Structure formats: structure tokens, C-alpha cells
Amino acid sequence: MENLKGKKVVIIGGSSGIGLATAKSIASKGGNVIIVSSNQGRIDKALQEISAESIGYAVDVTNEIQVKNLFEKIGSFDHLIFTAGENLILSNVEDTTLEDARNYFNIRYWGAFAAVKYAAKFINPKGSIVLTSGIASNRPNKGWALGASICAAMEGFTRAMAMELAPIRVNIVSPGVVKTELWGGMSESDREAMYANIGNALPVIRVGEAEDIAKTFLYLLEQEYGTGQTLIIDGGTSLV
User: What is the pLDDT of residues 7-47, one digit of tens each?
Assistant: First the structure.
């Protein structure tokens, strides 16, 4: 098992939700965390929760030049984690314009694509990349055409990069419903009702917390034998 002490970890999407929980966990194990987000205010707030040694950069991951410049500025590092994503929007295909559909891929897919493209050459030996998907690709419901498509695309991209970038390990985490800011487009009452309804139907009788998923990211950083894998952490959603 690799010890994270002294390892440099870049987390794109590290200013909130799963990314922030993962950043805090890595810092608690002695890792040096660099968080990346599009909003400097959120970065500054998040850094107060992580560690005094952590730093952050404001970058638009849909801007290829900004992503390229980011990794040239950071230089060599050990692990890349990508958890960035906008608020989830559910819509049926008939109600979705092609422009909106294309734009929905900009952060979650093309942002990750650009990050991997420009980060790979700076990752140290025995380093890794961990991306983020979701169980929508396995268990889509009505209105999840785009979400399911992006998740499936990310999982295919992960397997391809595990071969192309070897011996860098490339894996992906596929969470179920997790309490994060991604559901911020819903009212608080609707959001809590959703958490309760979904959680009560699961074998674990709750939805996930960001800290649950952070443990999976840490596992994928520390183990040295798995690559091209999708780790599903969904409270049993795939079973029911």
C-alpha cells in the first residue's frame, strides 16, 4: 500500500462536495492537496477546511488553454482526481435541445478529457488518475438520458486511458445518490424528501454522504494493482 504522506494530489472539483471531502481526507493522511475549481471564493473557503499547506487555482476546465497552463504551472505530481460537475438537471429527450445536450458534456466529460490529456505527462511513477461517473449508466430512470450517457462515456474513457497511459493507473468511482451541492437546483424540502424516499428503499437505509465516497477515492490512490476499474458505491441501489 502506498502511503499518501508527502504525495501531491490534484483534485479538480475539490472545493465542494465529494471533491472537498476527499481533499480533507488526503490532507489528514499527510498528502499535499491542490484543489481546482472555477470559483475563487469557493476555493478560498475550502482551503480553510483542508490544511494550511494546501493551495488552490481557479480554472475553467472547459477552456483547454487554461487546463494546459494549469498543469504546466503545477509540474510533477502523484495523483489526479476529477470530481467536477455542475448541478444535475433531469429532462426528457423531447424537451432537451441539442445545444443544451452538448453543453451538458462540457465539464463532466470534456473537462475530464482535457485534464487527463494535459496532466498525464506530469504524473510521477506509480501515480494514478481517478475519475467520477455515477450509477445512471447502469440504472437510468426517466429524464436521465444525458446523465446516463455521460456516465457511460466516462467509464469507457477510463478503460481506454488505463491502456493508453499504462503504467499510470486509471480508475473511476461510480456513486449512487449522495448529499452534495449537485442537487442544489432543487428546493431544500424537495431535496430532503428525495433523500428520504431513496434512502429508505436501499439496503443500507440511507443515501450516501460525501465522506463515504471519499474513502473510495483514497483506496484507489493507495492500492497499486487495480486499473481500468469502475468502483460502484451506491448503498445497494444497483440491487433494488
Answer: 999 999 999 999 999 999 999 999 999 999 999 999 999 99
Low-confidence ranges of the chain (pLDDT < 70): 1-2, 88, 184-185
- Catalytic: 137? no
Please name the residues in contact with 128: beta carbons below 8 A apart, sequence gap of 6 or more: 78, 79, 80, 168, 169, 170, 171, 220, 221, 227
Amino acid at 167: P
Answer whether 18's CB lies under 8 Å from 46's CB.
no
Maximum Cα interatomic distance, the chain, rounded to a whole number of Å? 50
Q: How far is CA 32 from CA 45, 75, 110, 184, 237, in A?
A: 17, 14, 26, 29, 34
DSSP 8-state code for residue 47: H
Catalytic residue among 25, 37, 38, 133: 133
